[in-house]
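Structure in, sequence out. Go:
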């Protein structure tokens, strides 16, 4: 699904309307709305963490000038552009290059040596957002001499962010922070050699994505599509309720090759998942786990 240019225009500021005060009514409207989205568009948000979901839905309702979730449901059913705008709101695409630098340092020290033992490596970056994570990974693998024999599958539910990821153009003002992150992650070169600056943008060299396939994939509904030696899914599961987290862990377990590695976000872990005993920690603090059964 592609968003029209109009779907990305900034929203005019509107006052936030009062939320439904009857919680029972709000719950009914919420469930009907999520069911409507699922049946009309196939996006399944029924097991997303409720509090943040509600907040975003009400914010979308306000931006559309609506004061009921049931009115938002009606708009969504009949206006696919509104669905795109909501998708944008829900997909929470905050990201950064070399986000949590110590995670990347651990990737370099503990995972790359494992990848070196394979003649060819497949990596899945699930929920890659606008691509900063993918470019960071490509830089790291390139510096370690394994990028040439790697293919990265970078997926996200939101085609809009994937389009930005393919372009590889990030705000120049963030380069100072990214350079610091890169250095703390053990970067070996001048970070600025990876991009060209033009006006307020930094365009990353396209060779970094020569071995990357960007594709839409919905973790809540789609199936496994390959076997991987490394899966990164950082800061995505945090938005899901337990049953959906378990579904996604099942998907990852099925998609990992024997002794493949799973990397999660800072505030995500395997311990409470149904798959905890199928992995051993490679670096528990950095949320890196190795599949053992
Ligand atoms: C907070 S960003 C994380 C980006 C990156 N992984 C990082 O850690 O910086 C979460 C991403 O998950 C994606 N996402 C949310 N629900 C998803 C789903 N059901 N399937 C695939 N991606 C999803 C969002 O579109 C968003 O780009």
């Amino acid at each position: 699904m592609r968003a029209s240019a109009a779907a990305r225009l900034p929203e005019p500021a509107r006052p936030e309307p009062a939320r439904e005060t009857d919680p029972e009514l709000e719950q009914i409207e919420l469930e009907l709305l999520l069911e409507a989205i699922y049946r009309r568009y196939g996006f399944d948000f029924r097991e997303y963490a409720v509090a943040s979901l509600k907040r975003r839905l009400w914010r979308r309702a306000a931006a559309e000038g609506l004061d009921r979730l049931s009115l938002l449901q009606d708009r969504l059913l009949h206006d696919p552009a509104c669905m795109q705008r909501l998708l944008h709101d829900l997909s929470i695409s905050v990201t950064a290059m070399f986000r949590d630098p110590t995670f990347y340092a651990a990737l370099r020290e503990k995972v790359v040596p494992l990848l070196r033992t394979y003649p060819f490596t497949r990596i899945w970056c699930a929920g890659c957002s606008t691509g900063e994570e993918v470019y960071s990974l490509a830089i790291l693998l390139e510096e370690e001499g394994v990028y040439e024999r790697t293919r990265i599958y970078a997926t996200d539910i939101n085609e809009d962010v994937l389009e930005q990821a393919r372009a590889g153009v990030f705000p120049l003002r963030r380069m100072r922070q990214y350079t610091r992150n890169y250095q703390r992650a053990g970067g070996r070169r001048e970070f600025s050699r990876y991009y060209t600056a033009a006006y307020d943008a930094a365009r990353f060299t396209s060779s970094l994505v020569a071995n990357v396939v960007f594709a839409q994939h919905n973790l809540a509904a789609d199936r496994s599509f390959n076997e991987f030696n490394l899966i990164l899914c950082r800061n995505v599961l945090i938005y899901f309720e337990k049953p959906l987290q378990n579904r996604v862990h099942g998907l990852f377990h099925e998609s990992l090759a024997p002794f493949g590695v799973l990397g999660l976000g800072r505030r995500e872990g395997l311990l409470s998942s149904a798959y905890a005993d199928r992995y051993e920690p490679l670096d528990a603090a950095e949320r890196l786990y190795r599949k053992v059964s």
